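User: My collaborator and I are trying to settle a disagreement about how two of our proteins should look. Neither of us wants to argue from intuition anymore, so we agreed to look at predicted structures for both before our next call. Could you fold the first one, then the second, and keep them clearly separated?

Assistant: That sounds like a sensible way to settle it. I'll keep them separate. The first protein:
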Amino acid sequence: MIRRNLLGTVVRSLSDVPAVCLLGPRQVGKTTLALAVREKREAVYLDLESEQDRAKLAETELYLEQYLARLVILDELHRAPGLFPVLRGLIDRGRRRGKANGRYLLLGSASPDLLRQSGETLAGRVRYLELAPFSVLEPTRRSPNTLWLRGGFPDSLLARGDAQSLRWRQDFVRTYLERDIPQFGPRIAAETLRRFWTMLAHRQGGLLNVAELGRGLGVDAKTAARYLDLLVDLLLVRRLEPWHANVGKRLVKSPRVYLRDSGILHALLGIADLDGLLGHPVVGASWEGWVIENLLASTPGSPTGYFYRTSGGAEVDLLLVFPDGERWAIEVKRSLKPKLERGFHEACTDIGPARRYVVYPGTERYPLAADVEAVSLLELAGAVGRRASKPR
């Protein structure tokens, strides 16, 4: 097993709150992480996709009440949404008996129903954590280029070769379209949603234009927006929101849209190997999206990511805003000799970031200007994690 960076956060969170809800797309490694938690704590594990385990919960309250003093792990919780009211009662009962925290670890594939119901019934009792695909900070023993090409889903990244990895990702997309997505939203034709997903891949990193997407798909803008919301809710697509401030300039207000896993992006575009990727028009946008996902995954829940762009051309690819308000401006360049454009300096004048970086594919750290440094993704991801973990 490759140790996930989120493991320590999950264990600490269970000491702070009664329930932790671990969210993430299918096959990202939630169950493996939960079983690692079980090794550290005396825990009961139930897989709600198993008929045998679901049968144990025929009398849910009666069964779970016998484990008030132990951690209970409930996997694929969206299979039993009616559990939430029961869990609330059991959590409150445990509090009265002196067992306040570390009661339940809930695993789900970010179903909108799951989020809505847990928010309504477990308010103040649950902490949400997201398990992203593998990042450059995790000890996968794979090169950065392999991680970029194949993406961070464990079975894709650790496959014997590129062909096997691509086949896994193609099967993953097909399974999501035909089996998983219908569980989470209104019935949508698999081929329609595949076309939509592929259209987003071709527009990686572009500004969202829902009307244009709808026209390309032959549906109205409202329907296209619903398709996008579903993929965002399932943590497969990211809407990177623009940062707004009163700077006296006309700002771009549409979000940018990225497929969150670079490997899924490449599979949808039919990119089989690194040579094919380097010769494809999406290469720059793919690398930009991969860098952004790695930086945002370097620490759970903080900082928040935005981009900044004005109608006059001032632009920052990624603006990290930490909980205390400190801002870092980050430009992404897939060149060993990155050059800063005038728009980046203008944007920094507007934003006033505490730090300014350019992420590039090299390993050496060096100044590009008096207040701007070129750094590797690995180094900057580590710096973001250390900054976010500082006591407030």
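The second protein, kept apart from the first:
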Amino acid sequence: MSDIYELSAEVRTQIGKAESRRLRRLESKVPAIIYGGDKKPETIVLDHNKLVNALENEAFYSHILTLSVAGKKEKVVLKDLHRHPSEPRILHADFLRINPKSELTMNVPLHFVNAETSPGVKNNGGVVSHMMSEVEVKCLPGDLPEFIEVDLGKLNIGDTVHLSDLKLPKNVKLVDLGHGQDQPVASIHKPLVAEPEVSAEEQVIQPEAKPEGSQEA
């Protein structure tokens, strides 16, 4: 895959919670860290708006990135992202240095295709259920896919796609399968039929039962 994502960062010389709050509030910056490899962890800051714009592209989460820090470029992947619980703000980001010769573990999104032309949906009115939206893969950085395609085109009602059914790019392994966990990914089932609502006019009021031997007044 091509390295098309590049962000500029500044070295962060002052650390601490108070400094992090100041950077976020007054300078619209995001504190971050680069770690891994044979180097010491390095604290950096990123422009908040530029990072948010980059995060709008799904591939950014599973892409090899280039961080330019003080004129030096580092190849990294995004490993963790801390968001504000109630506001659209990024609080912190973690980047992992990559070694082209060492495998890494990453979450990769799933792209579901051909659902609308599958026999279960097109001919029988079935509904697709997604059990997963991403999978954890293990591979060398150069083999890291931006996404994995899940073809639903041959599924009928009652069919399920499992991890073992996925067609993986060359040299890419699924972590769950390596642990013996063949999880369901998607299935097609009959649509749930809601109980019809009964209007007041349609409701039948049953006469109250009378004890045996009772007489009308």
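Some points you might bring to the call about the second protein. The first strand starts at residue 5 and ends at 11. The radius of gyration is 27 Å.
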